[in-house]
Design brief:
Strand 6 (86-95) and strand 7 form a beta hairpin. The termini are far apart. 8% of the residues lie in helices and 35% in strands. It has two helices and seven strands. The chain has helices spanning 18-21, 72-78; strands at residues 2-7, 26-33, 39-42, 47-50, 61-68, 86-95, 102-109. It is globular, with a radius of gyration of 14 Å. By secondary structure, it is mainly beta. The strands form two sheets. It has a five-stranded antiparallel β-sheet with strand order 1-5-2-6-7, with no helix packed on it. It has one domain (2-112): Hypothetical upf0131 protein ytfp (Roll).
Length: 136
């Protein structure tokens, strides 16, 4: 079985975690959230962190993937799901430029992860300063 996953940070193409988590997965296209969400660069490792606060922030752009169920634990590990304040939920997205709405899995953080806060609201994460866990 497959799931649809919205990617907005270091799992996007060209970023450090893409090959570790999404290599070979089918990209469905570039999308944006239907509702605004707060997306920040935060933490001493400059991670992309989106809070589950629909209606706050900006519409977030990212990539939509179709993944096999057995890939979700890999993505969960890369996104620290299971650690306090790190979780996944569903979110509505639509293709850039408009189109049909689709519900997808997205990865969220709680406000506790925002220390230190490295940016204001973002609509597209492009920061290359991310420090992976094995280098912290």
């Amino acid at each position: 079985m497959t799931q649809t996953v919205f990617i907005y940070g270091t799992l996007k193409q060209g970023f450090l975690f893409h090959e570790k988590g999404l290599d070979g997965a089918r990209m469905l296209g570039e999308v944006e959230t239907v509702e605004p969400y707060p997306l920040y660069i935060a933490g001493s490792f400059f991670g992309a962190m989106m809070l589950d606060r629909a209606g706050e922030g900006l519409r977030v752009r990212g990539e939509l993937y179709e993944v096999e169920d057995d890939r979700l634990p890999v993505l969960d590990e890369l996104e620290a799901v299971g650690e306090p304040g790190s979780f996944r939920s569903t979110i509505d997205v639509r293709p850039l430029g408009g189109g049909g709405i689709e519900t997808a899995i997205a990865f969220f953080k709680s406000g506790d992860w925002l220390d230190p806060l490295q940016s204001g609201y973002l609509d597209d994460y492009q920061d290359r300063r991310f420090v992976p866990p094995w280098e912290r």
